[in-house]
Amino acid sequence: MTEQGQPAAPSPEQVKAMLERYLKAKVAGGAAAAVQLAEDVKHPREVNEELLFRLVDAGKDSDFGKGHHFDEIKSVEDFKRLVPLTRYDDYAGTIYEAMDKGDTEAISSIPIIHFNETSGTMGNPKGIPYSELALENHNAFGDGYLFAMAYRKLGPQVFSGRCINLTQVSLRTLKSGITYGAFSGKNMAQFKDYLPLLMTSPKEALFATADTDTRYLHMRYALADGKASYINFSFVSILLDMMRYVEDNWQMLVDDIERGTISPTVHLPASVRASLETSLEPDPERAAELRREFKRGFNRPIARRIWPDLSFLIGIAGAGFAPYTERLRRYVGFDIPIFHFGYIASEGLFSVPIDFDDPRSVLLPRGSYYEFLPLDEEDCTETLGIEDLEVGKSYEVIVTNLSGLFRYRIRDSVRCVGAYEDCPMIEFLSRIDQTVSMKGEKTTEEVLRKVSDRVAARDGFDLVDFSVYPNPDHVPARYEFLFELYHPDVEALDIERLERLTTEELSAGNPSAGRKIESNVLDRVKVYILQEQTNQLWRDLRVMKGTSPNQIKPVHIIDNPMKKRFFFELVDRELSGEEPLDGTRP
Amino acid sequence: MEVKEGRKGDRLVLAVSGRIDTNTTPELESYVERMPTDVKDLVIDLTDVQYVSSAGLRVILFAQKRMVGQGTLTISHPNEYVAHVFEATGMSDILTIEE
């Protein structure tokens, strides 16, 4: 195994022994979790209700539990009668105090060991408590179960090499002594010194500061290792971005590997550069392998040509991210299986996949106590239990989680897509609030994504990302799509054609919107083209302002004035057929 | 796009003229990359810049990151249009801009 850029590089024997120990422990733990799950899914309601009473008991002395008479709860009916559906604001004061002063027993008697920084998709970042019990659940099913399944289905060789881990985490310790940030960061920080044995990326990329070019570091070190086994990412859009970066910059990356250098054009803090450069060595042999393959082009999937031992990809790649997965096929082909994460959020891990290349996942009866509200019954206030879900129907998820949140409206929607024994299988759909409905047409983010993807396929452009602004001020109101294209063919762009295609696809994707367009209740779709790198600039700015890179999701619905100003300011007015603002355009 | 470099003590002024867009950004970026580490006061003078694209904004953001721990970055004299871009994108929250 090539070892570049890491101080005190371990010997191949040390790496092998370390990997074997790590793998053995993970696989054993995961196999036990799988046995437990196989039993639980036969009677999910009982397991789930048993968990509820354990959580109620653990919460009876908390601020929330005392305020809602947890000591009187003897049945599920009592629980639903005494505890209202809740939102973050119901806990905000207690959480703030706990983060500030460390009084976590006010949240739950189950020790709170961390506060997750939420993605901030719907507003400012918040702290979500994370307990020891949630950690146990995550270790068993977030890592172990998945490791065990990969080992069982693909054989022990799947872990013969290191992981290309593309996550980037931020973690800080609050004055109360409790950590705050992405939970994955807390896990990784615990074995920071061993990361080079397990992952190709240096810790300077995994725990990067805002002024570090992490795309370069992740991919330079990944390319240097020809024996990497699998790729781990948070969102598949990040992996796609990395592969595009390699396609655009492979010569520089390969030159650096050949010479054992870091190009001076790469943005790095001086101290990081100095630290990494001292341990880099030239690797002309690997560089020649890479150069040969890259020169053959990217028309044939490149991944296995440069990483022949690559066994699988793992991360969030289904539902809303499916269009990015399709685009990723250009680089990874169809013969490298994708292991989809289950339904995972700052509030916990709620489901796990049952096979490769299958975005469906089975609810974990010990992952949380679940309630559901049907999305197609607006006035329904009576929640359903884990045993009540119907295949094909969509639901809002309400959790009583392992970390002190009760009947918590997480604002996510899922669809029931089957059953595993007696336990529902689900697909994550979207955030509840990420729906456009100017005239009652209710277009979900999922539909908007499919519309964008279909338009890209029909028009033949490579879509970097899209945003939609529901413009209620236009008469009549209209959907405005903002597309960012990857190296657009300026000559071939025809905005009127794009608007026609987008209108057609929106009408097909949401017939209600289609009828309203036909009857002029809504106007036809307007399309704008964004300047190249706009979405990357959005990410850069969020990181610069302190958001963890792993938590930054694409802005698919422009739902506040700040986002509106940002994206509309960066419309490429020439490509969009608009008048220039600066007076200098031809 | 053209860049004129002026050094006085630990102050470096990059006077840019023209358009900072996807095509011209690499040139400005190379100036920022090769900036000596003893520069404490970097000024990007935009008096003669008519247009800054997303790619250009990313380079300015890069310059800002580069100066963290090294000194300060000042963006000077952006025209009305460019100043508006900084404001609308939220760049003005993290940049020091001299009108």
Topology:
The complex is a heterodimer of chains A (586) and B (99).
Chain A: H1 12-40, H2 44-59, H3 63-67, H4 76-82, H5 92-101, E1 112-117, E2 127-131, H6 132-154, E3 163-165, E4 171-173, E5 179-181, H7 183-190, H8 195-198, H9 203-206, H10 214-224, E6 230-235, H11 236-259, H12 270-277, H13 284-295, H14 303-306, E7 312-316, H15 322-332, E8 338-340, E9 344-345, E10 348-349, E11 351-353, E12 361-363, E13 369-374, E14 394-400, E15 408-420, E16 423-431, E17 435-436, E18 443-444, H16 445-459, E19 463-471, E20 478-485, H17 495-509, H18 511-518, E21 526-529, H19 534-544, H20 561-569
Parallel strand pairs in A: 1-5, 3-6, 6-7, 7-8, 20-21
Antiparallel strand pairs in A: 1-2, 4-5, 9-10, 11-12, 12-16, 13-14, 14-15, 15-16, 17-18, 19-20
Helix pairs in contact in A: 1-6, 10-11, 11-13, 11-15, 16-17, 17-18
Chain B: E1 2-8, E2 11-20, H1 25-33, E3 41-52, H2 54-67, E4 72-76, H3 80-89, E5 96-98
Parallel strand pairs in B: 2-3, 3-4, 4-5
Antiparallel strand pairs in B: 1-2
Helix pairs in contact in B: 1-2
> Which class best fits the helix and strand makeup of chain A?
alpha/beta
Overall form of chain A: globular
CATH superfamily of chain B: STAS domain
**Approximately how much beta-strand content do the residues of chain A carry?**
15-25%
Cα Rg of chain B:
12 Å
Radius of gyration of chain A: 25 Å
The CATH topology of chain B comes to Transcription Regulator spoIIAA
Q: Give the structural class of chain B.
A: alpha/beta
Terminus-to-terminus distance of chain B: 21 Å
Strand content of chain B is 35-45%
Strand order of the largest sheet of chain B: 1-2-3-4-5
Give, in spatial order, the strands making up the sheet with the most strands of chain A: 11-12-16-15-14-13
Biggest interface between chains: A-B, 29 and 30 residues
Secondary structure tally: strands of chain A: 21
Oligomer: heterodimer
Q: How much helicity do the residues of chain A have?
A: 25-40%
Count of folded domains of chain B? 1
Q: What ranges of chain B have pLDDT less than 50 throughout 5 or more consecutive residues?
A: none
Instruction: Report the total helices of chain A.
Output: 20
